[in-house]
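An example makes the point: we let one protein speak, the chain in one-letter code, the fold tokenised, and here it is:
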Amino acid sequence: MCRLVVSCDAPYRILAAGSKIKKLMGFTPHQLNGCILQSLEGPDTDTVSLHAGIKAVCNDCVSTPYQFVLYDSKGRSRYMMVSFSRYQNESGLLIGCMLTIENSCAVQLGEYAKITSKIRVPWALASMSMPHSISTVNCKFFNQFGWTATDLEGMSLLDLNSPTSEPEPWYALLRMASTGRVGTGEVCIRTQGGIDIFQTVTCIPVVEWPNSRVVYVAFAFGDTHVKK
């Protein structure tokens, strides 16, 4: 993870670059300081959305993390997750926009279908946005938890959570996925038959396009034990 501070107005000059930019993108801070953001952009970068994110936070609006195609010092395209935040001095004066940049582990929706076709465990695909509606599951999901396709119509991911357990583990995984990271945790699921089981689950962020917010989350369910 590295951080850049850029100006709020075009051409979005880089005011400061953190030392970790060298490991992540191959540039030294000295090479980037004073340059314009175009140094990290290329033919496949969605510059409209990238610049819009900067303008949004500079205008005191909220901007969610977004995967972009950025380019390293050798001109190679990289999938990077970018978060936007206001950068102020000690007096509270707005200096610019801070970009927090890290490698994205998100998979594209087309790739996700290929990956899940080889997965031998139960999995489910749900919307990243509230109420996290379940859109697709595999046959192993039906077999393990007892739900039918009819049961799942209009069902939220959080509806799987046992009423006797807090939903925070789900929220923690969703927060991690929103920043392009893969997370693993343990959740408590109530099966269709009313049995509560603890389930290890891996959460994978899914994007629609190379430049895109995380719009879906895939959950692969692993080890299971019955709640005592």
